């Protein structure tokens, strides 16, 4: 195993461990529980689920894997605060999106070779990438894993 | 910048960003607020602070940086649940530990060269490390950053 392979494994071990952790919590919750707030006056479980799907969906164009699967989620779960839009997807729909998305992401991730992860992503210019080689595709996984961890710590509170 | 340097920068950028985020939240809280639970019946802010200091303290021996600074925190903030031990450090004491610890950790981290981070840590045997080279020192920072992110997502709820 060369050092790029090692680094890719380190990063994806965390990503998949967190996805599995979130998935286990999600599967333990009823539809009613997903409507609960993580703490009084804070985001509801269903909003966090939609927010994570929307943020992970953004990785597809950033990593050059094609278009988003659910572009309609952006306005509701990233641009807007929870409870500011009353008409949102049902918990059942979001559960389906979450599962489907994880299948697609895993398939796309597996299509890259370790060295590919150190290439630039689509949110950085070629000029900037020469000066800032850490702004590579693997860094997108690192930052999104931390984001997922942050919200998993909140999501677990409604169990 | 070679690929090991790039990887080390990617990982430590996240670590320091999270430490700063937690620090900003901590500085915004009064001593009274630190006694509040993050959600009804869940951990208090002061417990999360002690828990993070205890977990980060463990990195010192694991990374071969010497003894723990606060070994007495382990029993209270890792082995025991919140509120099961009534005599714990004060919020003032823990704030001081947190600041001092971050100074020490930063100094220790800066003493290593990028390639050193891909050496084995002290919680893995030499035999296992040959088969599992991802169990290196940098991986300790990756996992602890995710852990810090998880609890920062909870800590922010008491603001």
Largest protein-protein interface: A-B, 33 and 33 residues
Shape, per Cα inertia axes of chain A: globular
Helix content of chain A: 55-70%
Please outline the major beta sheet of chain A. none
Class from helix and strand fractions of chain A: mainly alpha
- The residue-averaged pLDDT of chain A reads 97
Q: End-to-end distance of chain A, in Å?
A: 40 Å
Strand segment count of chain A:
0
Number of helices of chain A: 8
Compressed to H and E, one letter per element, the order of chain A equals HHHHHHHH
Please tell me how large the radius of gyration of chain A is.
Answer: 17 Å
**Poorly predicted spans of chain A:** none
Oligomerization state: homodimer
The share of residues in extended strands of chain A comes to under 5%
Descriptive key words:
homodimer; 159 residues; mainly alpha; 8 helices; 62% helix; 0% strand; globular
Q: What this model shows, in words?
A:
The structure is a homodimer of 159-residue chains. By secondary structure, the first copy, chain A, is mainly α. The first copy, chain A, is 62% helix and 0% strand. Chain A has eight helices and no strands. In chain A, helix 3 packs parallel to helix 6. The mean pLDDT of chain A is 97. Chains A and B meet through helix 1 and helix 8 of A and helix 1 and helix 7 of B.
């Amino acid at each position: 195993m060369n050092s790029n392979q090692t680094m890719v494994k380190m990063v994806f071990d965390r990503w998949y461990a967190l996805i599995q952790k979130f998935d286990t919590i999600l599967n333990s919750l009823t539809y009613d529980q997903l409507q609960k707030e993580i703490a009084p006056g804070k985001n509801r479980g269903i909003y966090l689920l939609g927010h994570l799907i929307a943020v992970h969906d953004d990785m597809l164009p950033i990593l050059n894997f094609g278009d988003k699967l659910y572009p309609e989620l952006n306005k509701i779960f990233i641009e807007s605060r929870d409870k500011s839009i009353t008409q949102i997807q049902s918990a059942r729909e979001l559960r389906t999106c979450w599962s489907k998305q994880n299948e697609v992401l895993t398939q796309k991730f597996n299509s890259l070779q370790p060295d590919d992860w150190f290439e630039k992503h689509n949110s950085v210019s070629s000029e900037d990438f020469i000066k800032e080689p850490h702004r590579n595709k693997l860094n997108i996984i690192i930052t999104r894993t931390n984001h997922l961890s942050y919200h998993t710590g909140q999501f677990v509170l409604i169990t």
